[in-house]
Write a structure and sequence with these properties.
two-stranded antiparallel ribbon; flat; 16% strand; 2 helices; alpha+beta; 73 residues
Length: 73
């Protein structure tokens, strides 16, 4: 039963992503200093999400390492 609930939840999540992508196909231009990028809004959201995961993961690892070295057990 738990397996079917997980599959249903994943299918719902994938459907939500597909709808989001379909509704956000317009092009947006992002500027950073003198760099200008034009890409789809849905792709921009995914890229920002992935960058957030990476930086958050790195920050968490850095904090864990600092705490481990500050309190040697």
């Amino acid at each position: 039963m738990k397996r079917y609930a997980s599959i249903a939840l994943i299918a719902l999540f994938v459907a939500a992503i597909a709808v989001f992508t379909w509704q956000n196909l317009e092009l947006v231009t992002v500027s950073f200093f003198s760099i200008h990028l034009t890409l789809r809004l849905a792709l921009l959201v995914v890229l920002v999400y992935v960058l957030g995961m990476l930086t958050g993961g790195m920050l968490l690892a850095l904090l864990r390492r600092a705490a481990r070295h500050a309190n040697p057990a």
